[in-house]
Structure formats: C-alpha cells, structure tokens
# Entry
Amino acid sequence: MKILACNIKNKMDRLETESYVEQLGEIVSEKAKLIICPSFLFLPLFKGGNYSLGSQDISSFNEATVTGEITAKQLKSLDVSYVIIGHSERRNYKHEINIDFINKINHAQEKDLRIIYCIGETEEEKEHGETFDILEKQISEVLNNVVLKDIMIAYEPIWAIGSGKIPTIKEIQNTIEYIKDIVDEKYEQQIKVLYGGSVNVDNIEVINNIEAVDGFLVGGASLDVTNVKKMIEIIDNKGN
Ligand code: 13P
# Structure
C-alpha cells in the first residue's frame, strides 16, 4: 500500500470543501491509502468517507488552558487518525522548534494518533551539500526524545514545495534511503517515508516507481479531486 496524503493547507472555504467531499465520494483503491488533511474547521464535513482523516497540526499543549489551540483529544473526537507535525511552513512562519514537535508527538501518541513528521532542507542547504546533515539533525533532535511509535517521515525539500521543482529521481531515492538507514541505525526500526514537494499527476508515476518511496504528501495538486483520483489510478495501475 502506498500512502497518498493530501495536505489541503489553508485553502478552500466551506462551500468549496463541501463540493470536494462530494466529489471524493467512495474512492476505492487497491494500492493507495488515502489520507485527507483539511483545515481544522472543516474536519467534521469529511466524516464517513472511504479515506482516513488527518489534521495539519496539533497543539503542543496538552492539559493547559490555551486560547486558540486544538488538542489531540479534540481531534480524536472528530475521527482524526493522522497528524502532520513539523511542516516546514510551521517551522518557518510560526517559528516552531524541536521542543514543540516533541510535545506534539507525545500528545498525539497519547491519543493514538499516527504522526507524519516532516523534514527537509532549504535550497541554500542543498546547494552547500548539507542536505544529509540537516536531515540527520531534524531526525535525531526530535526522534531521540520520543518513543518511535506510529511515526512516519515525510521528506519535503523546502525548495520543492509549491515551486513546481522536484529533486532528480536519483536524489529522491538516495535521500529516502538515507533517512531509512539513519532511523534503522539509530533506533533499529523500519520507518515509512513519504515524498512531498510539487507532486502532481505528471510526476507521481516516476516517483512511485522508486522502491523506497512509501507514499506522498501532496499539497497544491490535491486541491482538485480529479487530480486525487488520477493519482490513485496511477498508483493502482503500477505493476508489481
Ligand atoms: P505542494 O505539493 O503544493 O508542493 O506542497 C507540498 C506540501 O507542502 C505538502 O505538505
């Protein structure tokens, strides 16, 4: 099974979301597990589909009373099964740091939410040949301090997000294999790794052919249900 996680981000209002839900209908797939991560606001609109629900974030506070925060307990009560943690947009715009991710992972695990932990390098870091060092740091500084349970990693090069640019197939393969090796070495666990960053209907097939890629975290392309269905079709059509 390949994972197709759709990160809707802060796109779509209520009407657009209702139409999206309707179009999703009863998607059936033999080889793809679909996870939809809408805005917190519209999570309840997605109930009952043939896919899993994910949230785009979770509070780093658990019991404390904090205005505007959304807890694991609340997410669980809306049938959320997955939570994205450490997305580069939250690292960048909301200045979230390792201790936030550690707390978020702990809270998510307390309520049996599965975690998609995002890592990735900037364009500058890539140009300086620092990709592997950065990824190793993003992995160890967080995963050394949590229990490695129900966690998968999404490798999202920051420069590939929303840019239409993706790494070469060889680079994706090498980097994802590197991430898996690091986790295996450090924690003696096999972890799933998704690729994210400008995945679309035109490039998903070649990325899907990379053995090490366990799935995708898709942003922009997932805003159109036709694309989502097409991507599932491509995953389903891959010969074994
Ligand atoms: P795009 O697919 O729009 O590049 O976004 C990727 C992403 O950030 C998913 O989390």
User: Anything to note?
Assistant: Residues 7, 87, 156, 161-162, 196-199, 217-221 surround 1,3-dihydroxyacetonephosphate (CB under 6 Å). The mean pLDDT is 96. The longest helix spans residues 169-187. The radius of gyration is 17 Å.
